[in-house]
């Protein structure tokens, strides 16, 4: 490397990896919401339709923190990373997630298609990201149910503001977030 060459940033490295298909996962995602008053009907229907009908849905209670890493030259959009930890299963590893920008190629497609990378990490992840220069943008907790049908995963979850005091978390809205996504597909299988 030449002495006067600009250093390669984490954002540049990730962008190059995405362009070279080193990170080949594509996520297809449908999102919606259901009012609190109708969530029991949805849960009942999902119990009947999904594979885990005998055991019932899996429950989860997670906290998610969104970090951004800005280019020192401010020439590109910041790199966004999400860290999720299970509040109800403390022995589970932290999850570091990169989610790319949605693919805007086909406006007739009702799904969101985007690059995605998930990595299990140790509990030192937040300190590591802070040392890299990442800033916390926002955080929230999410509590809900997860259903499976073949390769698809359906989550029905309530999103909560994180309180700085000892008060219980406050719901962000009077509805549940509903997401349907299949297992991640390698990029070679995701293009028709």
UniProtKB/TrEMBL annotation:
Superkingdom, taxonomy of origin: Eukaryota
InterPro entries: Mediator_Med18
Short name of one Pfam family: Med18
Location(s) in or outside the cell: Nucleus
Assembly with partners or alone: Component of the Mediator complex.
Keywords attached to this entry: Activator, Nucleus, Transcription, Transcription regulation
UniProt name for this protein: Mediator of RNA polymerase II transcription subunit 18
GO molecular function: transcription coregulator activity
GO terms for cellular component: core mediator complex; mediator complex
Homology family: Belongs to the Mediator complex subunit 18 family.
Function, in words: Component of the Mediator complex, a coactivator involved in the regulated transcription of nearly all RNA polymerase II-dependent genes. Mediator functions as a bridge to convey information from gene-specific regulatory proteins to the basal RNA polymerase II transcription machinery. Mediator is recruited to promoters by direct interactions with regulatory proteins and serves as a scaffold for the assembly of a functional preinitiation complex with RNA polymerase II and the general transcription factors.
BP GO annotations: regulation of transcription by RNA polymerase II; termination of RNA polymerase II transcription
Gene name of the encoded protein: MED18
């Amino acid at each position: 490397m030449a002495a006067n060459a600009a250093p390669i940033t984490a954002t540049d490295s990730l962008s190059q990896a995405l362009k070279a298909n080193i990170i080949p996962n594509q996520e297809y995602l449908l999102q919606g919401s259901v009012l609190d008053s109708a969530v029991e009907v949805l849960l009942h229907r999902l119990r009947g339709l999904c594979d885990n009908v005998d055991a019932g849905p899996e429950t989860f209670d997670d906290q998610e923190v969104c970090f951004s890493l800005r280019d020192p030259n401010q020439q590109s959009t910041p790199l966004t990373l999400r860290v999720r930890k299970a509040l109800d299963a403390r022995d589970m590893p932290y999850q570091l997630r990169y989610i790319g920008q949605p693919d805007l190629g086909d406006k007739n497609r009702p799904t969101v298609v985007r690059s995605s990378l998930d990595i299990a990490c140790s509990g030192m992840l937040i300190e590591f990201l802070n040392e890299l220069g990442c800033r916390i943008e926002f955080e929230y907790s999410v509590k809900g149910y997860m259903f499976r049908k073949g390769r698809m995963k359906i989550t029905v979850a309530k999103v909560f503001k994180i309180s700085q005091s000892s008060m219980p978390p406050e719901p962000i809205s009077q509805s549940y977030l509903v997401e349907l996504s299949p297992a991640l597909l390698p990029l070679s299988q995701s293009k028709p």
